Amino acid sequence: MSKLGIIINGIVKENPTFVLLLGMCPTLGTTSSALNGMSMGLATMAVLICANFVISCVKNLIPDKVHIPCYIVIIAGFVTIVQLLIKAYAPAVDEKLGLFIPLIVVNCIVLGRAESFAAKNGPLDSACDGIGIGIGFTLALTLLGLCRELLGAGTAFNMPVYPEQFGALTFVLAPGAFITLAYLSALFNKFIKK
Amino acid sequence: MEYIILIITAIFVNNIVLAQFLGICPFLGVSKKVDTAGWMGMAVLFVMLIATLVTYPIYYGILVPYNLQFMQTIVYILVIAALVQTVEIILKKSMPALYSALGVFLPLITTNCTILGVAINVINFEYNLAQSTVYATATALGFTLAMVLFAGIREQTAITKTPKGMEGTPIALLTAGLLAMAFMGFSGVDKGLSAALGL
Fold it and tell me: What is the pLDDT of residues B19-57, one digit of tens each?
């Protein structure tokens, strides 16, 4: 498969949110607005690319019996790096995402891709897979965040679209996350998956 | 009194699944039958309590004195992974009956974000050891409650007719949304209660 093919595969055919249904916690927890969703997606993408690349480089050095703990340590290392960078350069984002940044460690997307792709393919292909899955995840989170923000607060990327009092606040709160994702994945099932 | 409010907040007002969105994977994955959901909840309760009791002294005894707080994520996930393995081995040897009930769920729990989430939360909220223990127990009970309620509803929706595109995950998510809406009815209960008790 070509590098571009791998990237597109991650965005559409193996879209982590709508097709693989992985990483549901940040998907639901951080998408109260489009910007929040996007920053979460980008943070996860950074970890995915680095972790995929490094794991693919060292996969032959790790004994098979302990490969999962080793992968988790590598992932946790990159999560810590991303966490410290966000804290230093974007404290506002850190405040919004809070607990969900350290929880990228237990996001099943990252370990799942390490196990199913990086452990079998070369470093460059694995980095491309990280980019593809990362973009797919970021797009899904941004779309979900945009829908919730638009329906709930009447804004898109913090720009007002219609007066706030017409919005249904439920969509910004917890139930809206489940309901919006339910309808988005139903639409995805109908039109794209087939 | 303070503990009662803590318990009610953790179970109903700030339910870990329906209000904080942690542990969604097992919530959607192992909730097709009520009894399986209940056992999963018990396994989480067990591990969450031990994990919190182990990570708490590590944070204040090792990480804080040596100024290593930034290593929290790495240390915690390793400790939790090792802990789950140890618990599995001990249970297998000494309590085979309990192991056969919880066994299948234990490996899943390592990557269950509720465990790591609660261990990090008790540090962020600056709870003491007693409060942490109560918080961890109550959170796990809240998780169990959400799981069992959700599984009960899913057993019913499985035998009803759903539109084709909504089958499977979408209808499950929609159910969870309605359940979350019901739990929103509890919001403010904690504040009202502490006002009524004069805290």
Answer: 888 888 888 888 888 888 888 888 889 889 999 999 999
pTM: 0.88
Which helix (H) or strand (E) segment is B151 a member of?
Answer: helix B129-158
User: Shortest CA distance to A42 belongs to which of A3, A97, A2?
Assistant: A97
**Mean pLDDT of the region A84-113:** 89
Token output for B145: 């409650």
Instruction: Tell me whether residue A69 is exposed, middle or buried, using C-beta atoms within 10 angstroms of its C-beta: 0 to 12, 13 to 18, 19 or more.
Output: middle
Nearest to A175 among B22, B28, B180 (CB): B180
Is B171 within 8 Å of chain A by CB? yes
Number of domains in chain A: 1
Smallest Cα distance from B100 to chain A, Å: 24
Q: Report whether A143 contacts A126 (CB < 8 A).
A: no
Q: If interface means Cβ-Cβ distance under 8 Å, which residues of chain A face chain B?
A: 21-22, 24-29, 69, 72-73, 76-77, 79-80, 83-84, 99, 102-103, 105-108, 111, 170, 173-179, 181-183, 185-187, 189-190
Residues 6+ apart with CB under 8 A from A2: none
User: Residues A63-80: pLDDT tens digits?
Assistant: 888 888 888 899 999 999
Which residue segment(s) compose the domain that A59 sits in? 3-193
What are the φ/ψ torsions at residue A156 (nearest 5 degrees)? -130, 120
pLDDT digits (tens, 9 = 90+) for B133-192: 999 999 999 999 999 999 999 999 888 888 887 888 889 999 999 999 999 888 888 888
Q: Whole-angstrom Cα distance, residue A165 to residue A30?
A: 23
Identify all chain B residues contacting A187, using CB atoms and an 8 Å cutoff: 165
Report yes or no for ipTM above 0.90. no
Q: Cβ–Cβ of A99/B121 closer than 8 Å?
A: yes
CA dihedral B181, B139, B14, B23 (to 10 degrees): -60
